[in-house]
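TA notes, week 10

Several of you asked for a full example with nothing omitted. So below is the full record: C-alpha cells for the whole chain, then the designed sequence directly under it. When grading your own attempts, check the secondary structure regions first.
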C-alpha cells in the first residue's frame, strides 16, 4: 500500500502477494466467495434495524441531530488504513457500520476487544482522532442518534457510560476535509440528506410496476 500512488507498482505488488505468499490467495478467495451470502443473511437484521431507527428518530426528535454538532471519535488503525484515508482526502467516504462518537472531546482509548474485532490488534497501529462536523439544515434526516444521558421508554438510560455518546448510523457519508499527520487528526464533514433512500426506491419500484401494467 505504500506504493499506491504509483498505480503500476501497486498492481504488480498486489499480484505478487496473491501468487507468491502461501496463505494470502486462499484468504482472499475465501472472503470473496462468502461475501455475498453473508451480506444477504445480514440484511435480514439490518433492514428492520435501519427502518426501526429512522422511525424512532422521526417519532422522538429529541434523540435526533437537529442542530449543528461537532463529534469526536478515537480509533486505532494500521498504516495501510491511514493511507486509505489520505488518498481519499477531499472525497466522500461511507461508514457502513455503527460509529460511536462523543459530543465532547474526551481522552479515550479503544479497547483491546474493539481492536481485535476490527482486525487492528497488532503492534503496528496508530492512534487517530476523528472530528466530524455536522451542519444541520431544516428538513434534514438525522445521521445519528443522540445517546448522551437520555433514557428510554422504561426510564433507564440507553448507555451506562457518561461519555456524551452519539451513534452515527450505518451508511453515513462524510467528506474528508483535512488530515494532520503529526497529531494525527482526520477532520470530516457529514453529508446532509433530506430523504430516505428506502422510500425513494420503494416508490420508484411501485411507479415502474404501475407504468409497466399500463403498457
Amino acid at each position: 500500500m505504500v506504493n499506491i500512488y504509483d498505480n503500476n507498482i501497486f498492481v504488480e505488488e498486489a499480484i505478487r502477494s496473491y501468487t507468491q505468499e502461501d496463505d494470502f490467495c486462499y484468504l482472499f478467495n475465501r472472503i470473496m466467495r462468502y461475501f455475498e451470502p453473508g451480506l444477504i443473511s445480514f440484511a435480514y437484521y439490518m433492514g428492520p434495524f435501519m427502518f426501526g431507527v429512522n422511525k424512532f428518530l422521526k417519532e422522538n426528535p429529541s434523540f435526533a441531530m437537529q442542530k449543528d454538532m461537532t463529534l469526536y471519535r478515537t480509533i486505532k488503525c494500521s498504516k495501510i488504513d491511514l493511507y486509505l484515508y489520505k488518498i481519499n482526502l477531499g472525497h466522500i467516504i461511507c461508514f457502513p457500520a455503527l460509529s460511536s462518537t462523543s459530543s465532547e472531546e474526551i481522552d479515550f482509548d479503544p479497547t483491546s476487544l474493539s481492536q481485535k474485532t476490527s482486525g487492528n490488534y497488532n503492534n503496528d497501529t496508530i492512534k487517530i482522532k476523528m472530528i466530524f462536523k455536522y451542519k444541520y439544515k431544516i428538513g434534514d434526516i438525522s445521521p445519528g442518534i443522540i445517546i448522551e444521558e437520555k433514557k428510554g421508554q422504561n426510564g433507564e438510560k440507553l448507555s451506562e457510560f457518561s461519555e456524551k455518546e452519539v451513534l452515527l448510523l450505518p451508511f453515513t457519508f462524510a467528506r474528508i476535509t483535512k488530515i494532520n499527520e503529526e497529531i494525527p487528526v482526520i477532520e470530516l464533514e457529514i453529508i446532509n440528506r433530506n430523504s430516505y433512500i428506502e422510500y425513494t426506491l420503494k416508490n420508484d419500484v411501485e411507479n415502474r410496476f404501475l407504468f409497466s401494467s399500463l403498457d
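Confidence is low (pLDDT under 50) at residues 205-215. Use that as a sanity check on your answer.
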